[in-house]
Amino acid sequence: MPLSTESRAYRLTPAELHAIETHKYYLSEQRGAQVSIEEAIEDFLERYAAAWRREKARQDNRAQREEIERHKYFRSTEAGHDIGVPAAAEEWCATYAPIWRAERESLERNGFRRVTVVVRNPNGMHLRPWSAVATTAARFDCDVYVHSAGMAYANFALEGRSFMNVESVIAVLSMGAAMGDTLEFIATGTEADAALATLQEMIERDAGEDAAGVGTTT
Description:
alpha+beta; Histidine-containing Protein, Chain: A; two-stranded antiparallel sheet; 8 helices; 50% helix; 17% strand
């Protein structure tokens, strides 16, 4: 069942969601049927999350040490002498660590594409345009999720925002967006770019009927 946006469950990082998307693919292959994102999240958290997080921490620590070694090399070259690992680590952590971690944990670094949409049609987004979004997204080899302020249901929370798979029946029936609201679509998969581009074109083309105004793709 989709979780209420008030629930504190399934609060994921982009890296976790990427791992779950991979798990979802292999779980579907294993079962011989398409597995929902809810099933994939629950199975991953129950069976694999602890080991995955330990391995991720190991890889992150190794990558961080490599960054510090690079910083030490360049700073030692500038200073004309070896500044030492402790000094290099202190400088790097104070100056570069937050930027490095933010980039490493970003949606883009973890294989997601993003489009923001501002609804400008006075009628907002209702059942027909949401059904069209779901039908269009289903044509592509990717998963597409949407965030809208005040969503009644969500599959997971990411970066402080709730997201729902656009192909979910409950999403179609419960989603609504008034004029001036901002929608955020994220997608991952081999055809993520094509799916978002098509959704963007569709919304722009139907601007006079259902919704309008596409923001930027990153």
